[in-house]
Amino acid sequence: MAPPSKCFLILLLVAFTKIANTAAIRAEPSATAAVPSPANGVVLHPEAEYSIPDLPVPALLPCPPLFPKIPLIPCHKVPPPPPEVTECRPSLEKLMPCAGFLTDGSVFAPPPECCAAFDPFYEDAAALTCLCHLTDGDIGELLPAPLNRRRIVPLLIACDFRIRPDTFSDVCNALKDRVPPMDLPSPPPLKDQHW
User: Fold this and answer.
1) Cα first-last separation, the chain
2) CB-based burial of residue 64 (10 Å sphere; 0-12 exposed, 13-18 middle, 19+ buried)?
3) Can you tell me the distance from the alpha carbon of 121 to that of 108, in angstroms, rounded to the nearest whole number?
4) DSSP conformation class of 37
5) Which UniProt keywords apply (predicted)?
6) How many Å apart are CA 171 and CA 135, to the nearest integer?
7) CA separation for the pair 152, 139 (Å, rounded)
8) What's the CA gap between 188 and 10, in Å, rounded?
9) Of these four, 7, 143, 160, 188, which has the most CB atoms within 10 Å of its CB?
10) pTM, to two decimals
11) pLDDT 10s digit of each residue in the chain, 195 long?
């Protein structure tokens, strides 16, 4: 039996041979391809796209972001990181369909639009931390009427929130310093400068 390095080289040669045969088949001109016209010095080539397929192995490595793809080596595209959340007001404004349930005790269930408004929060961990403003009552700044804090946990339960309300409250208490503010701090006023 050949040592592992020789086996790898043999497999690599077989893969190159297979790829070369595939590329040669793709590069053969068809019967309908343009005929070369050496009379005017210009040789017309059939428009063939030369591409080398990846080796049949799983794409374990991420594709390099600023470089062209390396032939034969499969890679997976890494999605760009989501933009950093610096303030929570824009994302929390999406929860305004829940305002009636959070402020009016006569509303027995949140509307479907309210529960659907939670879906974008699950996709981004930074936006999910903005929901801590819901559990600590800061969302009351956005509501048209005073917040009924006793309606927060029933809202999370009714909307099948993916984290248990008591666990989420504990997480929010632990991450208190990392939760983005409701609004960006206003810049300091410019002082009058005398020249």
Assistant:
1) 88
2) exposed
3) 24
4) B
5) Disulfide bond, Glycoprotein, Signal
6) 11
7) 10
8) 69
9) 143
10) 0.54
11) 555 567 666 766 666 666 655 554 554 554 444 445 555 555 445 455 556 777 677 776 777 777 777 777 777 777 766 667 788 888 899 999 999 999 998 999 999 999 999 998 888 877 888 999 998 889 999 999 999 999 999 999 999 998 888 898 898 888 888 888 888 777 766 665 555
Question: Distance between CA atoms of 128 and 121, rounded to whole angstroms?
Answer: 5
* 3-state helix vs strand vs coil in the chain, percent to 5: 45, 5, 50
Q: What's the token pair of residue 61?
A: 């490595």
Interacting residues of 29 by C-beta distance below 8 A, sequence separation 6+ = 46, 48
Q: What angle do CA 3, 4, 10 make, to 5 degrees?
A: 95
Tokens of 19: 């790829």
- Beta carbons within 8 Å of 140's beta carbon, 6+ residues apart: 146, 147
- Distance between CA atoms of 6 and 184, rounded to whole angstroms? 62
Q: Where are the alpha helices (DSSP H) in the chain?
A: 4-27, 89-92, 99-103, 112-116, 119-123, 125-130, 132-135, 152-158, 165-174
d(CA 154, CA 131): 15
Token look-up 């040789």 returns: 43
